[in-house]
């Protein structure tokens, strides 16, 4: 079918077109059976019971956005309201219970995960972090009503005897992004950090604080969970899924750091700008940071990992998204972490841009 922009929008100064030939296919474990079931696309959602106790559900959508809900006996607690799931979250709830939806928890303030919250109406209590309320007050959106109850560090939500532990450990993907844990069910929801089975979306899933993004992998593993609801894309996650991506991220960080040290000293920097002149210095700057990203990408993707396979064999999207991750990790490593020293007065000591 011919569409307005065809299959790519080319421009001389933009990104090159990606081709399947240049990439590895997603591993089989990233393509669960329900993706082949036409009813998934007709209904607009897929539902699975997760963890212990039989009352916690993971819901995903053809748009690749996930949420969850808990049936308490005194009402349903819904976690997130992605527009891509939209009102189908209500169909999913109705398919297992007649209890009303009484509570909605916002994992974080991002519109792509809670931008269908207004569908639940004013009777539903909305629980979120203080920062989420602050951000939604500052940037109001009629589709994202203000939270009715917020907390600062830790809180417990109890409905019908079912308890959920809410915790905030600091900025990671964004400020206000919380942990939502069902201790009886052993289900943890932490959105936009781990997309089970994949390297997650480009630029560390567009995260704001990369040190926090790394820390979140450790914090996720500090919970005793049987299922992780990660917000994307075709699976809920196991502990092993988190351990695997944590290893991937630490490989990438190691090589990004190595690339920075190799290419950011005075001598290497000269090489990137040699013969360009002041008027084309930005061309050298692009080549410098992209060379560091390429270094980290090459080293990460060709490495034999802990189980004897390469990352493209273990995680979906590795050959596609690693270069974006490498760029972000290298650039934030250079800004969020130590600078390895600084220029001495006058012309003394080594000059590091990173
Ligand atoms: Zn987000």
UniProtKB/TrEMBL annotation:
Ranges where the Metallo-beta-lactamase domain occurs: 64-232
CDD domains: metallo-hydrolase-like_MBL-fold
Pfam family name, one: Lactamase_B
Record bears the keyword Hydrolase: yes
InterPro entries: Metallo-B-lactamas (IPR001279), NDM-1-like (IPR050855), RibonucZ/Hydroxyglut_hydro (IPR036866)
SUPFAM superfamilies for the chain: Metallo-hydrolase/oxidoreductase
Superkingdom assignment: Bacteria
Gene3D superfamilies to which the protein is assigned, alphabetical: Ribonuclease Z/Hydroxyacylglutathione hydrolase-like (3.60.15.10)
Entry keyword set: Hydrolase
GO molecular function, one term: hydrolase activity
Heme found in the keyword field: no
Record protein name field: MBL fold metallo-hydrolase
Organism: Streptomyces chromofuscus
